[in-house]
């Protein structure tokens, strides 16, 4: 069933309601008494304010330094999805896609306290979840449904019972429970229709967005011992975007020129000292995201503290995208200056990439807690998750002067052009615009079909024994536990490339004019030319119609060099001791963590004339003893201090374990070997934390936290002189080996401030519904970047200190103003994520990429028509803030500009006790 049809029929809603109504009614039993020492606080809140109250209560109830964002009482997050909502948590920022060749209009992952998301752990109810991403551990938050969670937690002090892969912390999604509400049976449904202001602006006429979710829960049994929750969600989100990339993702889109006209990254070797654009790209995107998901949770409670639950989740993401491209690149420069320049030769390419992606993630977890006496508990958890990633790329490119039988594009004097700089972005003017605008000038360059498949499986088991360890206990206690995690990741690439056989074949296949779409759209960088759009189906059919005119290029390296299969086994045991009194809590522990890695891949051919890639296998292991101490002192009933010291790690990505091994022979007779490193050790961090928390009447809080992270074994890719190596029957004495290594030191410090006021009772009665919350985070990080041999030879230092960690913003701010009066509930939110490094260059800091600060304003309002029915309006990115990446000595040059539309949803929510 297609998503767009499901949004209107919503078959899950009557089905879930019917199932829940058939369950036995509540057996009237007295509520259990609270445990001794447990503080009972009844505060009646509703609507959007219910989420803030639950968030504050979570912070108050946890031992660790934890911040969170919660669902409201009708099952809505304050944003459209999990990763958007995570922005509201103090110290968290979010990042978009790292691939500039794909749509970047949404946030995808969370960064905790300035540590890139690859250094943080994503869990559901404390268990790891498989990743549908080659280069990141843990699930992409944006593909997980909001209906999954009751709360998003950011755990910032990771003690011994937690997986230590959390240099920044752990993002834990708490699934919904049937026992979380007072009702025995309830049903909540939300249905929204909306539009992104950018949708339908390109080729597709798909404009309307839709979201719908439904959750039903019931408690049943003669002792109310059983619970069930069923939650389903559907999304359909079309969008369009026109972006520009005068610099490519590696930062090489701008460069200097020597006196002889050769490119160089070093200004002191340049004849002019001015950087010039050498890769001028315009992209136009049509995108449709479709996401169905389903969660089910069964619970059985058979004692005051004993329970068993089983959770199953299925999450699907289909991202269908077509990207059109206009690319202009130059030959020889003619006097580039600070404001512009000219190139005597040029090349223009037009083409598209059809790149649909399907992601699937399945999770199954069984969790049990069993009383082993008045003061003891035994916990057992087992989970298995599987994620798959299936990407197909169909790429067809036309250019003005291709060399037949190759993928080489040649420059033409007829495409000479000048350029001027406006805000660091180039604007091109051709000497002969008719050559660039005439589709008959373009011949076929290549036809590519690429499949990329990822399979990731994570199996997890945890068991622990706790004695006198509950929050309300007093005196000494302890916690003993073991963890086992097995992760398998397989990556497979299938690559086929066809090119016209010769000049006669180019003529037979025909020019771009034969497959041109009549629609016209302007570009940013080449306003004279604009997009010339090949029809995807007609262009693809040419390889069948003129099959004899095409030849296949050699793609053995792409088909084998990237393939790998990693198996990682983590065995851990931990012990914790605790002391709790009326004022003090001291928690100390240690974790023994051992990891074994096996990497299976392919060895590139080295014998003369050999083309066979042979299977290879490598092994690695590492072991750590990871201590942690956490102390809490209760200053008063509403004030406390927390402090902690812990050691954590950040395991290498699976792609770093198994990066392909390739060989390249230079024109000077040297040999460069690029290889992975299965012996990579994790990053290590000593973490120091202190926090002050003051809980205000009526659910507010004032808090401040400071932290410092001393990071060692930072992973970076380096080049070094290697031993004499045999390759293709020849022995090379000048050998350079490039691989990821552990060496660099890094550090990070920061301050977090938070203020939440539920309401202001000193105001006049009609204004007492006002509420305000804000949090501010300052971050300062660095790592020591080893520099390239070319940089050192040019007089540069062996290492330089970066201006921050990758994806670490310098400043994060959130502010929310809310108003509740009777049936009306309104929230206006502001989020700022400061500038952050995207990549650091080994040659020169002028080619570092920096994501510029982004400010986003959102609004949400609801009106309660009746006890069960509420109308909701949501607006996101009201000011249409774009994503912008810059480079240059003073970030004066544009690297990537990606506009983002304004999104508005209008909908209804229905809530009923069944």
UniProtKB/TrEMBL annotation:
<dbReference type="InterPro" id="IPR036942">
    <property type="entry name" value="Beta-barrel_TonB_sf"/>
</dbReference>
<dbReference type="InterPro" id="IPR012910">
    <property type="entry name" value="Plug_dom"/>
</dbReference>
<keyword id="KW-0998">Cell outer membrane</keyword>
<dbReference type="Pfam" id="PF00593">
    <property type="entry name" value="TonB_dep_Rec_b-barrel"/>
</dbReference>
<dbReference type="InterPro" id="IPR039426">
    <property type="entry name" value="TonB-dep_rcpt-like"/>
</dbReference>
<keyword id="KW-0732">Signal</keyword>
<keyword id="KW-0812">Transmembrane</keyword>
<keyword id="KW-0798">TonB box</keyword>
<dbReference type="GO" id="GO:0009279">
    <property type="term" value="C:cell outer membrane"/>
</dbReference>
<dbReference type="InterPro" id="IPR010104">
    <property type="entry name" value="TonB_rcpt_bac"/>
</dbReference>
<keyword id="KW-0813">Transport</keyword>
<feature type="domain" description="TonB-dependent receptor-like beta-barrel">
    <location>
        <begin position="429"/>
        <end position="878"/>
    </location>
</feature>
<protein>
    <submittedName>
        <fullName>Colicin I receptor</fullName>
    </submittedName>
</protein>
<keyword id="KW-0675">Receptor</keyword>
<keyword id="KW-0472">Membrane</keyword>
<dbReference type="Pfam" id="PF07715">
    <property type="entry name" value="Plug"/>
</dbReference>
<feature type="domain" description="TonB-dependent receptor plug">
    <location>
        <begin position="59"/>
        <end position="169"/>
    </location>
</feature>
<comment type="similarity">
    <text>Belongs to the TonB-dependent receptor family.</text>
</comment>
<dbReference type="InterPro" id="IPR037066">
    <property type="entry name" value="Plug_dom_sf"/>
</dbReference>
<dbReference type="InterPro" id="IPR000531">
    <property type="entry name" value="Beta-barrel_TonB"/>
</dbReference>
<keyword id="KW-1134">Transmembrane beta strand</keyword>
<feature type="signal peptide">
    <location>
        <begin position="1"/>
        <end position="27"/>
    </location>
</feature>
